[in-house]
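A student in our group prepared the protein record below, which I am reviewing. This is what I was given:
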Amino acid sequence: LCFPQKLWNMVESDQFQSIWWSEGGKCVAIYEELFQEEVLGRVGPLQVFATQSMKSFLRQLNLYGFTKMKKQFQRSASLPEFLAEEAAASANKQILYYYNPNFNREYPHLLEKCKRRSAPKRRAPCAPEMDERHPSRSPDG
């Protein structure tokens, strides 16, 4: 299976507690600390992805067109409620939200449009300039 298919199966599975659908099935929510242990920590035949690095996993998400979303919190006017919300918000900092328009629980057929973007091509180093004292010879002599 390719990366988006593996990700889809994980989100749909009850086997993993560190990843789930968010925003009504439009976003993927990842509890980073638990995900590193539960998914990326697997080795051998139980390994899900070809990496054990969170940084590499997030790079794969980006290559497949996922964008990181910020969770918006409504702020209260009263100080005690505001402080409680701040505590909840800081606990949520370990939860990452990623969105891809072709990765939606309600439209599984769009998954086939989740293609890996090609990496930007590196330019070849500049060709050495011709030495005008030694022009290339033509077949005429």
